[in-house]
Please model this.
Amino acid sequence: MAEDSDDKTEEPTGKRLSNAREEGNVAQSTEAKILASLIAALILVGMLAPGMARDLKAVLTPFIEHPHTFALDQYALSRLTLELGLAVAKIMAWPLIIVVVLALALSIAQTQGILWVPKKLMPNFEKLNPMQGVKRLFSVNQLIELFKALLKLTLIGGVLGFGIWRHMPEFPNLATVGIEDLLSYLKDQVYWLVFVTLLAVAVIAISDYLFQRWRWMEKMRMTKQEVKDEHKQNEGDPQVKARIRSIRVQRARKRMMAAVPKADVVVTNPTHYAVALKYDQESMNAPILVAKGADLVAKRIRDLATENEVPIVENPPLARALYASVELDEEIPPEHYKTVAEVIGYVMRLKGQSAN
Model:
């Protein structure tokens, strides 16, 4: 039964995840950014709000208590507006910086580092297509986002509603307390509501990020064919690699066969194995194996030896041992010195007898 090419059953490879990241395709949660904004709001309310209020009061008090001291001509009014705007901006700078830094920090944490994708900045005119807009509006993703928004409103609304409901018995008594006590009570309740809301949004943000991560990993899954194709790109086509290996083997065999006529002796099994040895007393410490083969290759070595009058000696144990333990152009190991010396000595005696 043929494999369905659209059946994405394989885990995404590191290369696929890396390519997706380079294109800006990463798992992100909007709820995490909302969480950052709420954390910033909590910091502002808990730490910076009193100081900001004092600074704003100092800046705005002259305008409220002594408005008659300011000139109202066009030039003076423009300069006054600019000075007032700069003063307020200076006071609000730190809160804005905190909000931006927290939002960036959470975005970087989600993308696991700074991600710069210039392609994302290019205008996409397909988004101006009304039909595409309608499709996006009624897509599965939008339905999921709508469900998440309703769930979020329900959870946060329920938490806030419960917080207000549990303090409702205290509301009638607030009419009898002084203004300072009332403000202190309201401040505590606001802190509590912000804190509880922050916890609720944190639960939503963590859950949403895990969900987005899971969806992203599902989209990144690959078919078996895609894994094979990527492996071919990384490692090379197996057929091509096999062909290259075959060419290398053929070339090595040609070089090996070319060395057989120059050998001093060929040791055989007698039919299954053949090894060709060469030895020069003046330039070599030990005999060198210049060719070896089994079955058909062994027959070719024997044929070449016969054609070029290279002596052939039958010694099955030595032939098998040298074939298994010695590579081409390597010296024979010391444990075979004695046996090989006997063979070469035998060959030398044959050559000497032939010369006589």
